[in-house]
Amino acid sequence: MQALGEAVRMALPNGTVEAIAVERGAELVLRIRRDGLLDTMTLLRDAPHLAFEQLMDLCGTDWPEKPLRFEVVYNLLSLSLNQRIRVVVATDAATPVPSVVPIWPCATWYEREAWDMYGIVFEGQTDLRRLLTDYGFEGHPLRKDFPLTGYVEVRYDEERKQVVYEPVTLTQDFRNFDFLSPWEAMTTLPGDEKVHLNRIEGPKPPADKGTQP
Questions:
Q1: For the segment 134-188, what is each residue's pLDDT rounded down to a tens digit?
Q2: For the chain, what is the HEC assignment?
Q3: What is the pTM of this model?
Q4: What angle do CA 166, 167, 169 make, to 5 degrees?
Q5: How far apart are CA 30 and CA 4, in angstroms?
Q6: What tens digit of pLDDT does each residue of 194-210 get?
């Protein structure tokens, strides 16, 4: 697999491939420059000795401590040659990544998801709409610095007869958690008083036949 990665490196302009790795002994990973993404993907799809016809998945990852905090991960599959490859491109919150929709039209869904969840912008993607979050959602929920409670909460207002959005407010009841299973918390079920009593007390040891009571 290392040889396959080197073949891709040699077929691209110098510096396009930043790193080659074989992870877990069987997964070829290429880290490439952002401006060389489209050339790399076109080569991987069209070169007969590569033939990665299918884009199986596109997702984002977030590393807040890095200057380029986001990575866009592309998982490709070659059915004809029975091989896989992973391509990784790094970017920040402001710099767009070229869209691969002209190469694989199915990427529209994945790029919209990465935009919705991480805020990664894809240059050339004309349909960057929210995909999984609600209308009017603020922020991108898979970023590591996104608060677990979110910024707003939604509820139905009976007086106004409509759905309203409000800043998140947590009452004290929701800050105290009882991790005991509701079944374990039950001491007596209707009709099972005797069974529960025996289970709580435990079986009595048999009397010794050699002693008198």
A1: 777 888 999 998 888 788 888 898 999 998 888 887 665 555 555 565 655 555 5
A2: CHHHHHHHHHHCCCCCEEEEEEECCCEEEEEECHHHHHHHHHHHHHCCCCCCCEEEEEEEEECCCCCCCEEEEEEEEECCCCEEEEEEEEECCCCCEECCCCCCCCHHHHHHHHHHHHCCCEECCCCCCCCCCCCCCCCCCCCCCCCCCCCEEEEEECCCCEEEEEECCCCHHHCCCCCCCHHHHCCCCCCCHHHHHHHHHCCCCCCCCCCCC
A3: 0.73
A4: 110
A5: 10
A6: 555 555 555 566 666 65
Burial label for 150, CB within 10 Å (0-12, 13-18, 19+), is: middle
Tokens of 182: 């509701």
Is residue 31 predicted with pLDDT exceeding 90?
Answer: yes
> 73: how many CB neighbours lie within 10 A of its CB?
15
- Please give the distance of CA 33 from its chain centroid, rounded to a whole number: 23
- Cα–Cα dist 88/33, whole Å: 9
